[in-house]
Amino acid sequence: MFFLMMILSSCGVTRYIPEDEQLYTGSSLKITTEDKENVNDKTLEVIQSRLHEMIRPEPNSKFLGMRIGLWAHYKGTQEKPGFFNRFMNKKFGQEPVYFSQVNASKTEELLLNRLENNGFFYASANSETTGKGKFLGMAYEVEVSRPYRLEEFTLEGDSLSIQKEINEILKETKLTKDARFELQAFKDERARIDEALKLKGFYNFNGDYLIFEADTNNYEERKFDLFLRLKAGVPEKAIVPYTVNDIRVYPNYSVEEKTSAQDTTVIEEIAFIQDVETFRPELLERYILIKKGQRYSSEQSRYTSNRLSAIGNYRYVNLRYEEVDSVTLDDGGKLDANIYLSPLKKRSVRAELQGISKSNNFIGPSVLLTYRNRNLFKGGETLNISASFGYETQIAGGDRTGLSTYDIGLSSDLIFPRVIFPTQIQDRFRYSVPKTKVSLGVQSINRIGLYRLNNVSTSYGYYWNANRFVYHEINPISLSIVSLSDVTPDFQQILDDNPFLAKSFEQQFIAGLNYTFNYNQLGDKFRTHKIFTGFSLDMAGNLIGAFDGKSTVEEPNKIFGMEYAQYVRGDLDFRYHLQLGEDQVLATRLFGGVGVPYGNSISLPYVKQYSAGGPNSVRAFRIRSLGPGSYRPDSINNQSYFEQTGDIRLEGNIEYRFPIVPYLKGALFVDAGNVWLMNENEALPGGKFTGSWASELGVGTGIGLRIDIEFFVIRFDFASPLRKPWLPEGERWQKEFKPFDRDWRRENFIFNFAIGYPF
User: Fold this and answer.
1) Do residues 339 and 248 touch, judged by C-beta distance below 8 A?
2) Reported pTM
3) Record: fold of 1-59+97-144
């Protein structure tokens, strides 16, 4: 801590600024108008964001008022800087941005030009210097008046077939009467027309062949007519549609192979050319959407490439078109389609030594061995066989620290890149074909000093991407047998004291189906507003129960001599990310989950229950230390770990993420949530969900540091509770903050270590 304070206290940069220079502190921009009737606040907001892009240079970045990157540069470039200063400059240093680099008059020209591109002609701009001494900035002000608005939009010429197609496309244009003159809108419309024409067969068309012309001569007011036409000299091949001629597929393509010596198989007018059959043509044909004789379509071509890539058998998928014969205005042109597929290696063995960090604070080493066989039956099938051994111990759990686990598992997946179903349905999926997955696995988890939990599971289901945002997964068959063994006296006492918990750990047969839906925009870097919506449904025992008749907890029905679980569980996860600037995000999440046990079950199986607290939940509380409801165990230890779960979970989070220096980011966050029971449990008083649930939410706040290297994030979160739901009503909100008191810190200062962002 002392070392850190020494660094921060020395971050002043004034003494390093040359005598003839001033440090540039940035600029402000103000937009004014006297025409409020025609220029509303929303328009000014849009224009302001576009004008900000024109203001250069960018000042040196600051963190908590300190220019750490600039300080690192100055210290690292002085005479004999030393190892530490050279290292800091290399990793975090920023070149100084001086006021002498600012060209105010050039910036004013750029601002006026951008305003004209957005319809605001005859605007004015001025600027003045701000600040004093060694720190100077700029203040820009522009004044705008009523912009030019569209009166009529006309397509010139209608004799060519392409012009008739464009006329149809323009029926959905956004360039309608009263639209503001906007250069970017014209570019977007040209791109839209280009894309629509390529869907209609115009293979060689280019948006640059279109030109917009604006005419203001017919109006005294600020109005204009817009004309769209083809440029002069557009080549004939650009204005005619093309049809697909021959289609050739090379399933085992490599640069060295000689296609002349290969065998050809024709399926549905598609020629499959390969020397030795590596992929069955009748199966591969189903992925190809382009057909002989149909018009060229960029969408059909893109979807065909997506579907072939999604097989998972090919390193490269290359669809190339070749023009054949001559082109005429009457007959158009023809294209041969050649599809080159370069396979991945058929077999591979992979050994991994992993460092595992789980959301329940378990960390430790794990060894994973994976054997993979691709294209097993010459239809793109993939067989994965994995064996794992891991040791985990729980950290950052306060009195619960030290719970250790051995985990041994063997699993196999057989994935078919198509729908295995009685009828042919995969043609209905255009973006990507669903994959069929058959899984079988065994796992043994040994919680040292407590119990051993054995699990045998199998499933059969489908998963696919409906588009680049939407993902579906459904497992109509999901079977699992869970059995408890090697129970120690200590854990047996826990079960004896809590019949609900004992019921959830009994040997059970879990049979049902589950479905998952995700809509995910969070990976789209260019969106300001991003959302994620996840929904999952897990049902067990309902089909068996329908044939087995009515059952009760006291007289449960059995299958294969085992009681079977009956429950319905549903989760809804909504996230919203607001991009505030480069690497600055306001991230929020709302999560709700409920599980309803019925029939044979008085509670959910333990592996299906919810918990709250920990690095991916309410971070101001230790793992599984919240709830259920207002319940608080008499003593906090590894035994109470198993009691604090529930059938219902509600949670909300908000987090502001910001950059500090390259690869290091910070966060400020507030979390709230808890779990509750669906049914009353005498062993867990206050745990049942009631109308006063809002007063039983645990609330916490904290700060975080994240080492964010591309595709890998190490996260450290430091949090403290604001409200403890187990305290008497009226006393739950935290009223004292004693960071220098050891006892207070032990109880109220929580450290979380995790891999990846929490949401």
Assistant:
1) yes
2) 0.74
3) Ubiquitin-like (UB roll) (3.10.20)
